[in-house]
Design a protein that fits this description.
Elements: H1 3-26, H2 33-55, H3 61-85, H4 90-112, H5 119-136, E1 137-138, H6 144-152, E2 162-163, H7 165-190, H8 193-211, H9 215-225, H10 234-264, H11 267-272, H12 275-291, H13 302-321
Antiparallel strand pairs: 1-2
Helix pairs in contact: 1-10, 1-12, 2-3, 2-8, 3-7, 3-8, 4-5, 4-7, 4-12, 5-13, 12-13
Length: 323
């Protein structure tokens, strides 16, 4: 199977997982991003235990260290990403992070993996940044069109659009994801896929365990494990639990397939394919907003839809050029 097909499947599953994550975080199911990351790391560790008999061994010291750091950085990137998801629209956050990750990957690949890039790829990086920022900008009332009409009608005092606070969480999250991907590719270049996967997951789990030394994190984890939460019926708890398990199953499968795609091909190209998930998340959000607004509802005026579609087109153009 080609790396391209594996990556496509991975990002489709990731789009589903991100949408489920948004419903849980927005509904207050899990308010602490550290707790949410703990569950992901724990599930990854369970998968790691099943894989250990088929390919675990101690690699070279530098490879083991790189793998542990890669997993640790990945965990911190998840924490920042979930924090941003709890504060802003899923389409904005996922596009801002995912649109910037390929840029960071290409920059780091240039210096760490000593890869060279063409003028076309540099232009693509500019488009990715522009699309990510357009997706993240808040034009207040309705969207870009209304904002432009209002501002162009003023004789003075043209005000720049507000950059959403979540973007400042998306930027470092994207940078950390980029670092993790580069280190992961280095690990796969120096060991087998299964062994590299085990060591990187171990790094993530160790970091989350260390974060549980915080009294607040331990308390939030304990509270999240209680089945009967205040203000929620057992039926609602069961539905939330099922959504969580479904989302994590999709996310876990996505992570595994993305890792395998990186193992098979170029880490930069695999990340470039991530543009597919923005369109999928956008479609899923529209469907849920129209059919299940109690589960997930986002502002989808004509102006906002045009703004987001335009941003996705710009990102898609960048991803097309960066192939």
């Amino acid at each position: 199977m080609s790396w391209f097909l594996v990556a496509l499947i991975a990002y489709f599953l990731n789009a589903v997982a991100m949408t489920v994550d948004k419903t849980l975080l927005k509904k207050g199911g899990i308010k602490n991003p550290v707790v949410y990351t703990f569950y992901i790391a724990a599930l990854g560790s369970v998968l790691m235990l099943f894989v250990i008999p088929f390919g675990f061994f101690v690699p070279a010291v530098i490879t083991a260290i790189a793998a542990l750091i890669s997993g640790a950085v990945f965990a911190w990137a998840l924490i920042l990403m979930f924090d941003a998801l709890g504060k802003d629209d899923a389409t904005r956050v996922t596009a801002a992070i995912g649109g910037l990750v390929p840029v960071f990957v290409f920059i780091l690949a240039w210096f760490v993996l000593e890869e060279a890039f063409s003028t076309r790829q540099i232009i693509a990086a500019v488009l990715l940044i522009a699309g990510a920022f357009l997706m993240s900008l808040d034009f207040q009332t309705h969207g870009a069109l209304s904002w432009l009409k209002k501002k162009l009608g003023l004789s003075q005092g043209l005000i720049l659009p507000h950059i959403r606070k979540a973007l400042w969480l998306a930027l470092p999250s994207a940078a950390l994801f980029g670092v993790s991907h580069i280190l992961t590719k280095f690990v796969y270049n120096n060991t087998t896929f299964l062994n590299g996967f085990i060591w990187t997951r171990l790094g993530s789990f160790v970091v989350v365990l260390l974060l549980l030394f915080s009294v607040k994190n331990r308390r939030d984890l304990k509270n999240s494990l209680k089945r009967n939460k205040k203000g929620k019926s057992s039926a609602e708890q069961k539905k939330s639990g099922l959504r969580f398990l479904f989302g994590q199953a999709c996310g876990g499968a996505s992570a595994l397939l993305q890792q395998y795609a990186i193992f098979l091909g170029s880490v930069a190209l695999v990340n470039a394919v991530s543009g597919v998930q923005y369109a999928i998340v956008f479609i899923l959000v529209i469907i849920l907003t129209k059919t299940a607004p109690k589960l997930l509802k986002e502002k989808l005026t004509r102006e906002v839809v045009i703004q987001k579609v335009l941003a996705i087109i710009i990102i898609a153009a960048g991803l097309y050029l960066i192939r």
